[in-house]
Design a protein that fits this description.
heterodimer, A: mainly beta, Ubiquitin-like (UB roll), 5 strands, 9% helix, B: alpha+beta, 7-stranded mixed beta sheet, 6-stranded mixed beta sheet, 18 strands
Chain lengths: 74, 611
């Protein structure tokens, strides 16, 4: 299956902003996170097709996965 | 401070805060060791000051019976990382009910003043009445204990916050300082005066790298009392960091919320500025008086764009490993670092930038710099200015003041300068009063009289139940974006259980970034209390003390005339919903009605016996 991965903020550094990636059917979000080596300490919000999601959620062909750092204010 | 017990819960009366009370009219001082009454008294900060304020019936902020309480937390000046906080508490000139009564407020600031203050041997300073001439207060460490002196301050009048501090530094090179600016000196027409606190970076570099106790007009209160500065002169006490505390610090830096605030080159998120890039995909970055337009305008202040033209430096507070904030500098033609412009934190950056139509980082930085040096709360100033600009946009034929519009840097600069000099009370007294004067209150982004922070109210119904600054006293501002919670019951839990605990840091003397997600009712804090003070405290008891302090703050709001109707979001949110914000709707009238009913069902029961 093909998914579009959109990275935001510091997560983009040394990676990319937007890319289409190919994954086996049934792959979970965590697989993408692991492949991209996104540290847990930076991981914030996960969205699939603009809806909040979890790292254990399964991806489907054509999904857009957004990964954002955590929001901290001040 | 004197500690004669290991059990502060059962025996708070065996823990004593050293307090100096000054009657500024007569000059009389009372120095005493005051026994604590309960655990929140022991923890300190507003846990103490609000109990004192609760005993006063205050109808006007600017009255002689309204004290200004300057204190520290138990961990200020301790071995704990971020243990730097000083607190300023009083009935506020800017935050007040529709009944016309001032709200009890506190404000917190870092820098090194708090630690130096604590190291003099004094824990708390209460200022009663007003001095007849401008003074500064010198607090000195002596072999016989802390000494407090009142000194003439005529030579400091009119100086910026930075110049006041640097002037005093010449005389007291081993001290740190708290000072008001011209804004606080003009307290009659400026209700949002802040207190500037000196930093090691500032004194070493000569740059105005200050910290602030910004919210609630505590600088205006200091000015009302004719106190323009405080000097804390003491030897540094470098308390040895034990192995357990070192382990706690490692947890703070490597885990939880603070890791994300670390500099990018250390693998962190780059500070609070990073909030821009997290909120923009949802079009939730405030733009032009909290009306995001669904476009890419906020991206002009993304770090990657700012770095094309300006130099950015990460910086830390004294002895802090979190290194959460950034300084912005001009860049010279040869690529070298130029002049310092300002400290870049998310709130002032947005409220002096995107939210007033300013999209150039240097201009936003210079407006922040202006607020810092006039000694005015950048949040309240930014939101009052944005109200004014939105008014002028709606009324181009009859604009207010100089007719400034969104993005008009020169005119906005003029407005801030005039307000900071006390010449523009329409701005200096805040957005609530300005909007009431203009008869257009829908567009004023305050809640209960205090301007909100740089998070869209559509994303944070929790704002309504914050008891002090919107983001410092209810940590719900990131919840919708982070977790997507959109049902009422989840938000009831967020407001009544989870996120009010952020106020705990404003008891104990620590910065919120120590552990923003967990609060202070944790094993980490219990470890530090054991290590530094040999105190055995169950984290659940700490949590309970924090909750009691929060509820006291809420009870005081009702006593000062607030009604439940005032616990509501700015009216424009409901009357003119913004279709551009790409998030679940947690601010509709229906949602807010149901949320309010359920939140009050929880709080009402607990508030019954508070006062």
């Amino acid at each position: 299956m093909q998914i579009t991965v959109s990275l935001h903020g510091v997560i983009r550094i040394d990676r990319f902003k937007l890319k289409t990636l190919t994954y086996p059917d049934g792959s979970r979000v965590q697989k993408v996170i692991d492949d991209l080596q996104i540290p847990a300490t930076l991981l914030g919000t996960i969205l699939i097709n603009k809806a909040h999601a979890k790292s254990t959620d399964i991806l489907h062909d054509g999904d857009t996965l957004m990964i954002l750092p955590l929001l901290e204010g001040g | 401070m004197k500690i004669e017990t290991t059990d502060p819960v059962s025996h708070p009366e065996l823990i004593f805060y050293r307090r100096c009370t000054i009657d500024l009219k007569t000059g009389k001082q009372t120095m005493e060791d005051v026994p604590c009454q309960n655990l929140e008294d022991v923890l300190g900060g507003f846990g103490r000051s609000f109990q004192m304020l609760a005993k006063r019936e205050i109808k006007r902020a600017y009255c002689r019976e309204n004290p200004l309480i300057i204190n520290t937390g138990l961990l200020t000046g301790s071995s704990a990382m971020t243990g730097l906080r000083t607190y300023f508490s009083s009935y506020s000139p800017i935050k007040g009910s529709k009944a016309g009564l001032p709200a009890a407020m506190w404000s917190a600031g870092s820098g090194k003043f708090g630690a130096k203050f604590k190291w003099t041997g004094l824990d708390e300073l209460i200022l009663e009445n007003c001095a007849e001439k401008p003074l500064y207060i010198l607090i000195r460490e002596t072999p016989g204990g802390p000494q407090v002196e009142l000194k003439a301050a005529d030579h400091l009048l009119g100086l910026s916050t930075h110049n006041k501090i640097m002037t005093l530094y010449q005389e007291y090179p081993d001290a740190h300082f708290a000072a008001i600016g011209p804004a606080g000196e003009h307290w009659e027409t400026v209700f949002m005066g802040s207190v500037a606190l000196s930093t090691v970076n500032q004194l070493k570099s000569g740059d105005d790298k200050l910290r602030f106790a910004g919210r609630g007009g505590m600088g205006s209160m200091m000015g009302y009392k004719n106190i323009v500065a405080l000097v804390a002169q003491s030897k540094d006490k470098n308390i040895p960091i034990t192995a357990p505390v070192k382990e706690v610090h490692t947890q703070v830096i490597q885990g939880g919320g603070s890791a994300r605030l670390q500099p990018i080159k250390r693998g962190g998120g780059g500070g609070t500025w990073a909030a821009y890039e997290v909120m923009q995909p949802f079009h939730a970055v405030p733009v032009n008086n909290y009306r995001p337009q669904g476009n890419d305008l906020p991206e002009k202040l993304f770090r990657e764009n700012v770095e094309k033209e300006y130099d950015i430096e990460s910086a830390a507070c004294y002895r802090c490993g979190i290194t959460c904030h950034n300084y912005i500098y001009d860049r010279n033609d040869d690529g070298s670092r130029g002049d310092f412009i300002a400290k870049f934190d998310y709130e002032p950056l947005n409220l002096m930038g995107t939210n007033i139509g300013i999209h150039d980082a240097g201009q936003a930085g210079r407006l922040i710099h202006l607020c810092d040096n006039f000694g005015v709360d950048a949040i309240s100033m930014g939101v009052t200015i944005s109200y004014l600009l939105s008014y002028n946009e709606r009324h181009p034929e009859h604009p207010l003041f100089n007719g400034a519009t969104f993005g008009d840097y020169e005119k906005i600069h003029e407005l801030i300068s005039m307000a900071g000099e006390g010449k523009l009370p329409g701005v200096g007294k805040g957005s609530m009063r300005l909007s009431q004067l203009m008869g257009e209150t829908d567009y004023a982004y305050h809640i209960k009289g205090l301007e909100i922070a740089a998070y869209q109210p559509e994303t944070n119904p929790g704002y309504c139940w914050a008891i002090a600054g919107g983001h410092m006293s209810m940590g719900s501002y990131g919840t919708l974006i982070r977790e997507g919670l959109s049902d009422v019951d989840s938000w009831v839990k967020v407001i009544t259980e989870d996120k009010l605990h952020i106020v705990g840091f404003d008891l104990i003397g620590l910065c919120k970034f120590f552990d923003i997600t967990q609060g202070i009712g944790t094993d980490k804090i219990a470890t530090i209390l054991k290590s530094d003070f040999n105190l055995d405290v169950d984290p659940l008891k700490i949590k309970a003390a924090v909750r009691r302090s929060f509820l006291l703050g809420m009870a005081l709001e009702f006593r000062q005339g607030y009604t439940k109707e005032e616990f509501s979001l700015p009216a424009e949110v409901a009357n003119n919903p913004n279709p551009n914000i790409d998030l679940p709707n947690v601010s509709s009238p229906e949602f807010m009605t149901e949320l309010s009913e359920k939140v009050w069902a929880v709080f009402d029961k607990e508030l019954e016996d508070v006062l």
